[in-house]
């Protein structure tokens, strides 16, 4: 089977599964059978199947005529990563301009690069490589910011669709406060281009897993009238998500409140323009006041935690534990190129460090055993944020983020074996590797932790979206 082959029969995987369950728990399920139907949905799952019983279980399910994929020792399956916030046109800038804070970085580094996407051919060449890289990093669902350019953003959506990635793609709305050559000429052109992109994406060929998303860049780059019209589009179309930034940098917060003096807070700016609701994805949310946290909860808006970017642009440390304690939906974002890595693995590592910084500076009371605030995030929470938590932020928790019959098979086959080229897990012997060996859940937990903290693209062997094999190290030759 090759990555581009379309699955036309039941495919059954045999090996260890890791299944996120809640903000604080996951299931470690060695020796599982997971069947994927031709439509890419999970048909059935069985746990604790001894190698000698595999054929019996297949027969019981009437599934003897299947493609059986038995994982090697040191391999396991996890749900695909959900990147709830990234900027595709900033990937070419990764690693440059690290000396700046947000507002100078936008002016000196980011807007000049984004302006280059006025050239649709450049956009096509760049986006082809960028989407491939993001898929091979294990991101099966991605919330993409494009630029202000309609044609370039259409290309981004077309490329994502042709790769078979699940995604939300948005054209940035920015009608003031930018460089003179990187701003939209009027509210009406911004709205017309937004509507044109929505129609274009919805007419892309099937199977289509890409959806449009409204993308007011942030309050500082949008007039009130533009945001009001975007809010009206969102309320007329209940399937449209909204993505934007909030409260990332102290100076940004100050200038935002100066631009919108009638608002009581940054969150209130979006709320009074009809942009804060259950379909809103807010990147950063570092410096929110308690009134804003309460408002986000009331509106059921989600937060994309982007710790790599927050450290890199010296923006601050998002109090993820506190947001989670308040019942706010949280996922992870790479926020390239504020973040210097397109991999959610890096975001996981930095989310762990961010939570440790909070725990050092504002430790939880020993009696507050059920709260996340002031504690380092455990492994289960880190994986949850990267998968099911991100799915909730995108309103896709019924489709993806964990494994259950009826959900889509968006998954990664991960390997911690030495033959990945990444040092891997010593003790997983190459010679015994071809035989499926009984795996204990304790061993699986060690593999998972080592992968999350030391893994990279080399360990992500196969990337599946809706049952289709669309990327991973096994196909890069
Ligand atoms: O991290 C960020 N990246 C951006 O491109 C951006 N634009 C506004 N605010 C932003 N924050
Ligand atoms: Zn961003």
UniProtKB/TrEMBL annotation:
Pfam families assigned: Amidohydro_1
Family annotation (SUPFAM superfamilies): Metallo-dependent hydrolases (SSF51556)
Alphabetical UniProt keywords: Hydrolase, Metal-binding, Zinc
GO terms for biological process, alphabetical: guanine catabolic process
Chemical reaction(s) catalysed: guanine + H2O + H(+) = xanthine + NH4(+)
GO CC, alphabetical: cytosol
Cofactor stoichiometry and binding remark: Binds 1 zinc ion per subunit.
An example molecular function term from Gene Ontology annotations: zinc ion binding
Pathway annotation from the record: Purine metabolism; guanine degradation; xanthine from guanine: step 1/1
Cofactor field: Zn(2+)
Family statement: Belongs to the metallo-dependent hydrolases superfamily. ATZ/TRZ family.
Record-given protein name: Guanine deaminase
Species: Lactarius akahatsu
């Amino acid at each position: 089977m090759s990555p581009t082959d379309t699955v036309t029969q039941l495919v059954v995987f045999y090996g260890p599964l890791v299944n996120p369950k809640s903000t604080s728990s996951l299931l470690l399920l060695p020796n599982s059978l997971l069947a994927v139907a031709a439509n890419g949905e999970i048909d059935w799952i069985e746990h604790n199947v001894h190698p000698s019983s595999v054929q019996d279980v297949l027969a019981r399910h009437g599934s003897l005529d299947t493609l059986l994929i038995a994982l090697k020792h040191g391999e396991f399956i996890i749900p695909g990563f959900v990147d709830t916030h990234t900027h595709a046109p900033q990937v070419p800038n990764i690693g440059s301009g690290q000396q700046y804070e947000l507002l100078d970085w936008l002016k000196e580094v980011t807007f000049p690069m984004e302006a280059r996407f006025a050239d649709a051919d450049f956009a096509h060449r760049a986006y082809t490589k960028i989407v491939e890289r993001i898929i091979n990093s294990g991101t099966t669902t991605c919330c993409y910011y494009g630029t202000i350019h309609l044609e370039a953003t259409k290309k981004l959506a077309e490329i994502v669709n042709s790769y078979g990635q699940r995604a939300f793609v948005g054209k940035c709305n920015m009608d003031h406060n930018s460089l003179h050559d990187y701003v939209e000429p009027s509210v009406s052109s911004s709205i017309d281009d937004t509507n044109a992109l929505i129609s274009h994406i919805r007419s892309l060929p099937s199977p289509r897993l890409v959806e449009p998303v409204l993308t007011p860049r942030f309050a500082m780059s949008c007039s009130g009238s533009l945001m009001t019209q975007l809010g009206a589009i969102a309320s007329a179309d209940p399937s449209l998500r909204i993505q934007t930034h909030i409260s990332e940098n102290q100076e940004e917060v100050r200038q935002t409140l100066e631009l919108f003096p009638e608002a009581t807070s940054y969150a209130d700016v979006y709320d009074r323009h009809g942009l804060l609701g259950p379909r809103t994805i807010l990147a950063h949310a570092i410096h929110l006041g308690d009134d804003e946290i309460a408002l986000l909860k009331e509106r059921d808006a989600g937060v994309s935690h982007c710790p790599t970017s927050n450290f890199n642009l010296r923006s601050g440390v998002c109090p993820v534990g506190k947001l989670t304690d308040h019942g706010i939906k949280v996922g992870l974002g790479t926020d390239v190129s504020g973040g210097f890595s397109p991999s959610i693995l890096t975001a996981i590592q930095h989310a762990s460090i961010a939570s440790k910084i909070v725990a050092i500076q504002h430790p939880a009371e020993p009696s507050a055993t059920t709260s996340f605030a002031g504690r380092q995030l455990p492994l289960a929470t880190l994986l949850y944020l990267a998968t099911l938590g991100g799915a909730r932020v995108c309103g896709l928790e019924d489709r993806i983020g964990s494994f259950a019959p009826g959900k889509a098979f968006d998954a990664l086959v991960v390997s911690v074996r030495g033959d990945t080229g990444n040092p891997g897990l010593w003790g997983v012997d190459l010679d015994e590797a071809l035989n499926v060996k009984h795996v204990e859940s304790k061993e699986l937990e060690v593999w998972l932790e080592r992968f999350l903290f030391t893994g990279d693209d080399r360990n992500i062997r196969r990337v599946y979206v809706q049952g289709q094999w669309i990327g991973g190290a096994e196909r890069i030759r």
